């Protein structure tokens, strides 16, 4: 039988563009990162073949600042993620369940509005807002709250900016999950004698887990590796692990060491994400009545 | 077991008055259907009884205890929703046992009662199945088990069968009714399907536009519709317009061409009336037989159980239904004669 040309049935060829992008933009760079970690010097510094070494790896394991910054970054990422979750649940709930359906897209638009400007611009506008003599402190002074000092150039400012930047991702993820929970399901829980709190923990929370997990992935990972925000608003003691990696590439020109640090961060983040998923699945099964 | 009484419920959404003062009573252990077209307020009544909606005025009493201001989770009412509303994150046993867990019943007891409830709805051994793996009918059984396992005072069913296909629906109608008789929970069933209401209920309340149109047992409601709306909604009766006439103590509806005998219940000679007559109450007869009226058969439609015979009685359109054997040799575009017993004619002044 002759095959028709205008055939829109699923065909493995359709995956080629995305597979190609994935290969060139993700797989190859990751392999390069791994390879660079074991290189002696900078491959692109115009020097002859540098040769293989384990120096970068051992140096990384013995670098106290690296692990200190790693711990700090993971801490900041956890705090930012938790704040985002706490702020996003009520917001997504309101948009998914309280706002009338015809107004929902408008509210979602407001949530993603910050994406329409460059990140850098957002950061600078926030800096303007919270700096000494900025809008926020001036206003507080005006209403009688004096003696406040600015958060700018402290770790608090980094957290604030990161929350500001990543909250929309969390709201989008949670919204998509919460919207799928039928009103009847919540009503059924109430009628069966569950209080609102119990309805949340037993019904809404497990049903929102898929969205929550993607939200955590989209917030925790980039925040843990961020370097621009701490550099701009974190001040002298603001560095995070991303800043240190950045320095290896931009200032020290030590590509091999930078690659080793990146690989370690990547592995640690992957392990954390895998653990989060594992425990979420366990919690879901426990609530759902399946052996964990 | 508990009786349910509802007093003068009123409810508006914005400008739209959904309930205009509805009162009724269900005796303990009885099965009541709230029947009506969509938008008649039947679901709103159910939601007010279970507390998901608050009435503007009026009260809900269970066994003469006013529960109008009680929160839904404290009412001990079971409810089955149209789309089942099972918890997708839980397996069957957890779904059914949810209400018991909220009542802090011991786990052993929960397990025992969940198994019992599942046996009752013929889903014994389904405890560990995931909800998504079940068919629509099975999901509805789980929902029913979940609503009944807490031994609620009142069971509310909000169009629970409308998402099921015909065959499963008929099975479930029979089973729900059986189960309800067996355990004797006072039940309020909401439906827009008159056949379902007639099959299942002890009592039917026909609602129209926020008011009770008629209330009674299925047979009375069907055979003696109190209003034109009732006659039309339940089984779609034919309406014949004409004048009331009296000859030698017998009363008739006449329009010049037809003369239908009826039992006089009010009105005087010459009054304009409308009579509701059900298509299945007609019988074919010879010309000149007592009560014979001319019927011109225009179209014959086979519906399975019966033939639908569309035509004119005198000048007025008429839909007669006749069983297959009686109607198979009738021909379209021919004149016949039909008659109907006076007790099967209900009329209204217009």
Short description:
The complex is a heterodimer of chains A (292) and B (350). Chain A is mainly alpha-helical and 292 residues long. Chain A has helices at 16-37, 55-62, 64-98, 101-112, 119-130, 135-142, 155-179, 183-191, 196-224, 228-233, 241-250, 255-288.
How would you describe this structure to a colleague?
The complex is a heterodimer of chains A (292) and B (350). The mean pLDDT of chain A is 89. Chain A has 12 helices and no strands. Chain A has a single domain, classed as MetI-like (MetI-like fold), CATH 1.10.3720. By secondary structure, chain A is mainly alpha-helical. Chain A has helices at 16-37, 55-62, 64-98, 101-112, 119-130, 135-142, 155-179, 183-191, 196-224, 228-233, 241-250, 255-288. The N and C termini of chain A lie far apart (51 Å). Chain B has 350 residues and is an alpha+beta fold. Chain B has 2 domains: 4-232, P-loop containing nucleotide triphosphate hydrolases (Rossmann fold); 240-349, Beta Barrel (OB fold (Dihydrolipoamide Acetyltransferase, E2P)). In chain B, 25% of the residues lie in helices and 36% in strands. Chain B is built from 9 helices and 20 strands. In chain B, the strands form 4 sheets. In chain B, strands 6-7-8-3-9-10 form a 6-stranded mixed sheet, sandwiched between helices. In chain B, a hairpin with a 3-residue loop joins strand 16 and strand 17 (306-313). In chain B, 41% of the residues are buried. The interface between A and B is medium-sized, with 22 and 30 residues.
């Amino acid at each position: 039988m002759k095959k028709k040309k205008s055939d829109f049935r699923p065909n493995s060829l359709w995956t080629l563009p995305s597979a190609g992008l994935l290969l060139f933009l993700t797989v190859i760079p990751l392999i390069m990162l791994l390879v660079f970690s074991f290189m002696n010097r900078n491959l692109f510094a115009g020097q002859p073949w540098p040769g293989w070494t384990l120096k970068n790896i051992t140096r990384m394991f013995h670098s106290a600042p690296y692990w200190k910054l790693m711990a700090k970054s993971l801490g900041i990422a956890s705090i930012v993620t938790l704040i985002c979750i706490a702020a996003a649940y009520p917001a997504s709930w309101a948009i998914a369940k309280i706002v009338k359906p015809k107004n929902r897209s408008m509210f979602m638009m407001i949530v993603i509005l910050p994406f329409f400007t460059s990140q850098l611009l957002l950061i600078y506008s926030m800096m303007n807002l919270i700096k000494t003599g900025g809008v926020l402190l001036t206003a507080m002074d005006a209403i009688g709250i004096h003696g406040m000092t600015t958060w700018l150039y402290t770790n608090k400012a980094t957290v604030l900016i990161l929350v500001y930047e990543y909250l929309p991702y969390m709201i989008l993820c949670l919204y998509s999950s919460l919207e799928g929970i039928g009103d009847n399901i919540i009503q059924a829980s109430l009628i069966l004698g569950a209080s609102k709190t119990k309805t949340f923990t037993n019904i809404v929370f497990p049903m929102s887990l898929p969205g929550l997990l993607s939200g955590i992935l989209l917030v925790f990972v980039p925040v843990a590796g961020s370097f621009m925000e701490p550099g701009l608003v974190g001040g002298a003691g603001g560095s995070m692990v991303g800043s240190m990696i950045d320095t290896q590439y931009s200032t020290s020109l030590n590509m091999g060491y930078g690659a080793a640090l990146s690989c370690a961060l990547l592995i640690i983040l992957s392990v954390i994400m895998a653990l989060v998923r594992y425990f979420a699945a366990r919690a879901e099964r426990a609530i759902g009545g399946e052996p964990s | 077991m508990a009786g349910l009484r509802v007093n003068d419920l009123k409810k508006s959404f914005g400008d739209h008055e959904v309930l205009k003062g509805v009162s009724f009573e269900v005796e303990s252990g009885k099965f009541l259907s709230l029947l009506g077209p969509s938008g008649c307020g039947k679901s709103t009544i159910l939601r007010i009884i279970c507390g998901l909606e608050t009435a503007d005025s009026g009260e809900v009493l269970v066994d003469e205890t006013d529960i109008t201001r009680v929160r839904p989770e404290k009412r001990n009412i079971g409810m089955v929703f149209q789309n089942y509303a099972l918890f997708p994150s839980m397996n069957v046993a957890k779904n059914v046992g949810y209400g018991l867990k909220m009542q802090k019943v011991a786990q052993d007891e929960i397990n025992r009662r969940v198994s019992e409830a599942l046996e009752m709805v013929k889903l014994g051994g389904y405890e560990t199945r995931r909800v998504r793996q079940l068919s629509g009918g099975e999901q509805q059984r789980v929902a029913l088990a979940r609503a009944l396992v807490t031994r609620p005072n009142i069971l509310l069913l909000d169009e629970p069968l409308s998402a099921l296909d015909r065959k499963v629906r008929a099975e479930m109608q029979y089973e729900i009714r059986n189960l309800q008789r067996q355990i004797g929970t006072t039940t309020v069933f909401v439906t827009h399907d008159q056949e379902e209401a007639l099959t299942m209920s002890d009592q039917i309340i026909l609602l129209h536009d926020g008011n009770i149109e008629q209330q009674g047992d299925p047979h009375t409601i069907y055979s003696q519709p109190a209003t034109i709306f009732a006659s039309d909604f339940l089984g779609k009766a034919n309406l014949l317009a004409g004048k009331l006439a009296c000859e030698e103590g017998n009363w008739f509806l006449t329009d010049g061409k037809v003369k239908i005998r009826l039992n006089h219940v009010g009105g005087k000679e010459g009054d304009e009336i409308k009579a509701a007559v059900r298509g299945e109450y007609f019988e074919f007869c010879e010309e000149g037989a007592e009560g014979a009226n001319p019927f011109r058969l225009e179209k014959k439609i086979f519906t399975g159980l019966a033939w639908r015979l569309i035509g004119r009685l005198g000048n007025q359109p008429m839909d007669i239904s006749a069983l297959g054997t009686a109607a198979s040799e009738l021909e379209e575009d021919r004149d016949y004669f039909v008659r109907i017993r006076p007790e099967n004619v209900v009329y209204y002044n217009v």
